[in-house]
User: Fold Fatty-acyl coenzyme A oxidase from Naganishia cerealis.
Amino acid sequence: MEVKNTIQSGNIPTPALAIQAERAKATFDPELMNHFLEGSKEKSDEIKQMIQQMERDPILQVSSKVYDMTKAEHRLETARKIARLALYIELENFSSFENRMSLVSLMDPQLHTRIGVHLGLFLGCIRGNGTSEQMYYWVLNKEAAYVKQIYGCFAMTELAHGSNVAGLETTATYDVENEQFVINTPHIGATKWWIGGAAHSATHTTVYARLIVKGKDYGVKTFVVPLRDSNHNLNPGVVVGDIGAKMGRDGIDNGWIQFSNVRIPRYNMLQKYCKVSADGEVTEPPNNQLSYSALLGGRVVMVKDSFRWSAKVVTIAIRYAIARRQFKASKAGENDGENQIMNYPLHQRRLIPLLATAYAFSNGANVLDQLSKKTMDSLDHAVSQDDKAGIDKGIEEMKSLFVASGSLKSTCTWSTLNTIEQCRQACGGHGYSSYSGFGKTYNDWAVQCTWEGDNNILGMSIGKQLVKNISGVIKDGNKATGILDFLNNTKQYLNNEIVLKKDQLESLEQVLKAVEVALIRTANQALADLDKNGEDWDYIGARLVELSKMLAHFFMLKSFLEKFNTLEEGPMKLVLKQLAQLYSSSVILEGFSGIFLTFKVLDSDTVSYLSSEYIQKLCADLRPHVIPLTDAFNLSDMIINSSLGNYDGNVYENFFKIVKDRNPAPGSYTAPYEEEFRAHLNRPSLEDRQRNEINEDNEELV
Amino acid sequence: MEVKNTIQSGNIPTPALAIQAERAKATFDPELMNHFLEGSKEKSDEIKQMIQQMERDPILQVSSKVYDMTKAEHRLETARKIARLALYIELENFSSFENRMSLVSLMDPQLHTRIGVHLGLFLGCIRGNGTSEQMYYWVLNKEAAYVKQIYGCFAMTELAHGSNVAGLETTATYDVENEQFVINTPHIGATKWWIGGAAHSATHTTVYARLIVKGKDYGVKTFVVPLRDSNHNLNPGVVVGDIGAKMGRDGIDNGWIQFSNVRIPRYNMLQKYCKVSADGEVTEPPNNQLSYSALLGGRVVMVKDSFRWSAKVVTIAIRYAIARRQFKASKAGENDGENQIMNYPLHQRRLIPLLATAYAFSNGANVLDQLSKKTMDSLDHAVSQDDKAGIDKGIEEMKSLFVASGSLKSTCTWSTLNTIEQCRQACGGHGYSSYSGFGKTYNDWAVQCTWEGDNNILGMSIGKQLVKNISGVIKDGNKATGILDFLNNTKQYLNNEIVLKKDQLESLEQVLKAVEVALIRTANQALADLDKNGEDWDYIGARLVELSKMLAHFFMLKSFLEKFNTLEEGPMKLVLKQLAQLYSSSVILEGFSGIFLTFKVLDSDTVSYLSSEYIQKLCADLRPHVIPLTDAFNLSDMIINSSLGNYDGNVYENFFKIVKDRNPAPGSYTAPYEEEFRAHLNRPSLEDRQRNEINEDNEELV
Assistant:
C-alpha cells in the first residue's frame, strides 16, 4: 500500500493488498494465456505494442475526461483523432491496422465507428460492388484509402426503411441522353437517415437507390454521390442535417440527407455485378448473393468486439469484487472481518460464467475471423480466374459463413449487452458512477444489437436456414454442409432418448453432442409447427431466433473444443477446461434448460443437479484463478478507463482521485443555482406571499 | 393526415392513419380501463388534472430539450423545479402530492429523486427515527416539510459500505461533559458517498454513524447534522465535494462528505428508539425492526414506478410498431404492401407480454400501496396507544409486508429495466436516437436495481425468509402467515405430481396454484441444499434470488385475480383476462420453465405447447387491442416525451420535426472542426511530409 501523509484511523481498507495476494497464487502465466486469447504470440505482442503506442499518443489516448465531455467536445476530439489515426494507416499494413482498429473499437468506440464508416462501409461498398477500375479510382487514385481528398459515408438506411433494404425508396433514374443518373428523395420517408459522417464530415457517399431505367425498376443498387466539394461546401440539390443526440457514440456526426434531382455520371454507379450501358442496356448479375459480402466484415468485427468488451467489463467487475468487502460470510467465525464479495457463491455465479463466456468468445472470434478471410480469399481468387466450379464452391462456403456469422453477430452482441449490465450491477451503486465506465460502455454498445442486421431479423433468417436445411435432410435426403453438417444425424436423434446424463456433464464432447441433438429436435419441432401453420415462417419467428442463439453457442463450444484439444497438458489447460465446462453448463445447459428439458435431451434430475451443485462447484474451482484470468486479457488501465478496474486494485483511492480530478475542488466553486436556491429556502411565508387574502376575515365577507 | 405544402411523390407513408384505424376498432373504453389501472375513477381524474397542470406550468413542463442538456443545465433546471414544486406542496394534501410525485417520477426522474431525498429520505428518517418532538421541530417548526429553511440530504452510504449498513464506519462519539456528539470520518473508506443534494444544495443531513458512548460501540444510529448555515456556507469541519457525472439523473448534485470532529447537540441524535441521556446512559430499543420501516416507502414507490415506466416505454414501442411497416408478411399476396411490424408474430411475442406485465404491475402496485398504508397506520396507532398486542400484530404484518415489498421491489425494477431495453430494441435503429427517449429512460432507471437495497441482496434476504418459513412449517409445524400462507400446504405438494395440465392453462386459479407448488418445491430443494451444506446460506444464494422473483410474480398474479373477480363481465374484462393469461403463461410459466420442468409442476408437452402455440395465440388475440390498451395508460405526449411515441402516431413527421428543432438548421452552421478536417483531407503526400527522406537514393547511402 502506498504511504500517505494524511491522518487516517480505524480499519483503513486495503484493497490493493487483496489483489496482490490473488496474483501471488497464480497457477499459470497470464502472458501465455494471452497468447491463447489472441490466437498467437505474434498477435499478442503486436497488440501490446500498439496499446503502448496509443497510450503515449497525446491525441489518441483516452482518459476519464471522456465521461464529462459534451456532444460538441466528443465530435471535435473524434475528428482530430481521425486525422491522427490516418497517419498510422499510411505507414502500416492492413493486418496490423486491423488489429489496431480492434483496440480502437474498445478504447474509443465512437472513433472506431466514425472512421469505420469511411474505411469499412464506404470503401467496403466500393470494393464489394465496384469494378476493379472503380475501386482503383476512388480507393487508390483518389487516395480515399488513406483518408485523403475523399471522406465517405454510407447512405443506406432511410427514415422509413432500415432492415428491409430491398424496400428503400430513393431513386436513381437513368438519363440516357446525358449518360447520367438522377438521384432523388421522393418523400420524407425516403430521407437518408442515421448516416454517420454526413452531418459535417463526408465529401462523398455511397447511396443505395432504386435503379430506374426507361421506366423499369431494377431494384436497389449502389451509387457514389459527391456531397461536398473540395471547399467542403454542399453541392446543389444536396441538403444535409444533423441527426442530433444519440444514446451513445455522440462523437459521430450522424446526419440526414435529402437529394433533389442530383446528377452523377454513369461511371458513379458501382457496376461489378449489375451494369448499365451508355444507351441504357441493363445487365443483371448472375449471383446476387455476392453483392452482400460487404456485410460480412462488419459481423466479424462485432464478434471480435464482443470478446474484447466482455473482457473489459468482466475485468472491472472482478477486480472490484476482489477489492470490495461487505458483510460476513454466513459460515464466518466470530473474529472474521468482512468478506470479499468475490467469495460469495452468488457473486461467483453472477460473474464467473461471464468470464468463461469471454474466454469462449475470444477463441470463437478468432476462428470466425480466419474462416472469413479464407473463404473471401478463395472466392475472390475464383472470381478473378473466372473459375466457375471454384465460384460455386465459394458461394456454398459463403452461405455457411453467413449462417455462422449471422448467428454469432446477433447472439454475441446480445450476450455482451447483458454482460455489461450484469457487471455494472455487480459493482453495486458505484457502477452507476460515470467514471466506473459502465454507463458509457452500455450506451456505446447498445447499438450493436440493432445495426447492421437487427438481431431479431438476423436471428430469424439464420433459424430459417436451419429449418430449411433440416427439412432438406428429412424430406429430400439432402446433405447439410459447413456449420450445419451435424443435421445429417437428424434421423438418429429424433426420439426421446436422454442424451446427456448427470455423470456426463464434465465431458465437453458429450455436452456438444447434447447441443446438436437439442438443435435437431428444436428445428424439427419448428418444422412441424411450420407445416401445421401453412408454411407461415413468420409464425415460428420466436423459435427461429432461439435456434440461432443455440447455434452460435454450438459454434463457440465446438471451436473451443477443437482448440482445446491442441493444447499441452498443464495447469493452464486445466483452467481452460473448467472455463469451458462452466460456459457449457451455465450459459448453454442452464440458460436453455427449458429447451433441453422440453425436448428431453436432459432429464430434470440433471438440471436440478446443475443448478444446485455442479455450476456452483465449477465457480468455486475457478474462484482462485479469477485475477490471473482477467489479467490475461492484457488490458491496460487506459483501455479499462474505469475508477473501479485499475490493475493495482486500489479502488477507493482511485475512485476518489478521479472524482476530485474531474470536479471543482471543494471550496473553490459555487453552483450557479445556489443563491437562487437559498433565496427560495428563505422565502416569506405562504400567508405573506398570498397577501393574507385567504384568511378568516375574508370568509366573513361572503 | 395533415395537408402539407411540400412536394412529395411516391408511396408517402401514412402512419397516422394506421393508428386511427386501430382506435376505431376498440372494443372497450380506454377511460374506464384507466380507472382499473389507477385503482379508482377519482384517482384517475386527479392524475389527469395534474398532468394538465404540469404540462402548462412553464417551469415543470418537460420537452425533448432534456435530451440535449448538459449536466450543469440539468442541475440548474432541477433546482428551479424544486422551488416550483415546493409551492404545490404548500397548497395540497399529502395524498394528492403523493400522486403528483408519482407522475414527476415518470416525467422527470431526476427532479423526483432530488426532491425525494429531502422529502422521502431526510424527512422520512426523522419521522421514522425521531421522537415526535424531534419530528415537530425539524419537519414543522423549521418548515422542512414545505422545503423552507432546511433542505436535507441523507448520509447513509459510505465509499466502502453500501449494502451492509451495520458495517458503516463514521463515528458519533458522545462527549458527556458538553452533552454533544462528535461526528467523525476516520478514513477514506468512511467518506459519505453518493449523497444526493450534498454537493451544492443541502443545509442539513441525517447521518448514519456508529454511536460510541464511554468507549462502547452501540452500532449504527441516526443523527441530524447541519452542513451549511443560512448563508449557505459550509460549517467548520464539514468538507463536501461533487461526485460528478452519473449514468443517469445528472440533475442531482450527489456529493461526498467528510466530517472532521463536527459537534452537534445531544438533541440531534434521533431518539425514537435508542436513547442517550445527558449523562451517557444508553437505552436500547425493544424492537429494532421498527427502525427500518423508513425503507418501506421507497420500495412501494419503486413498484409504482415500475408500472408507470413500463407503461411509458411499452406505449412508445407499440405505437411505433403500428406506424412502422417493414417487409411483406410471409403469407402476403402479390399485391400486398409492407406489413405493420406489430403484425409479425415475433414482434407480438416481444411486446405484448411486456404490455401484459405493465397491466399486472399496475394492480399489484395499488394493492401493495394500500397494504403498506394500512399496515403502517395500524402499527402507528398501536405504538401511539402503547398497545402491546397491537404492536406485536403490527410487527408480524410488517414482516410480511417486508417480504412482499422486497421481492416486488427487486423483481419489478429488474423487469422494468428489461422492458425498457426490449422496447428500445423493438424500435430498431430509431430507438438509439436520444429523442426516442429510451436511452435516457434506461440510464435513469438503471439505478433502481442497485439502490435502496441492491436487488440481489434484497432477493437473497426474501428467499431466506421463504426457506426459513418452509423449514418452520416442515420441521416445527409452524403456521406461515401473510403473503407466505400458501406454505401451509407444503406437505400436500411435495411429490412429483404434475400440477398444471395442458388443458388447465387458461385457468388463472390453476396457474396460481402451479406457482405456489413451484415455490414450495423450489424452497424445499433449497432447504435440502442448505442442510447438505452445513447451513451455509450463502451457498444457496442463487436459488434464494430465484425464489424471490417467483414470489413477486405470485403476488402480482394473486392480486390480479382478486381484483379481476370483482369486475363486471364485458369486453373489458375479457381483454383483462387475456392479459392475465398472457402474463402468467409467458412471463411466469415460460420465463421460469426450467424450474417448472425440473420440479415437475408442468410436463414437457405442456411447455412445448406453451412455446409453440398457446402464447402466440394469446398474443394474436390481444393484437387488435394494443392501441386502446396503451391509450388507456392516459400518458400525454409531454409525459411520453418521445419522437416515436406521440398519440397521433405520425412518427416520421414528428421525428423529423424534433431533429430539426433540436439541431442547427441546414446551411446555418459550420462545425468547429470542419476547417481542420478539410485541411487534413487536403494534406500533402506522405513523401512530401517525410521530406522524401525514405526513398531509393537514401537506401544506396547505407
Summary: The first strand of chain B starts at residue 152 and ends at 155. Chain B has three domains: 30-128, 152-289, 295-327+339-631. Chain B touches chain A through 156 residues (CB under 8 Å).
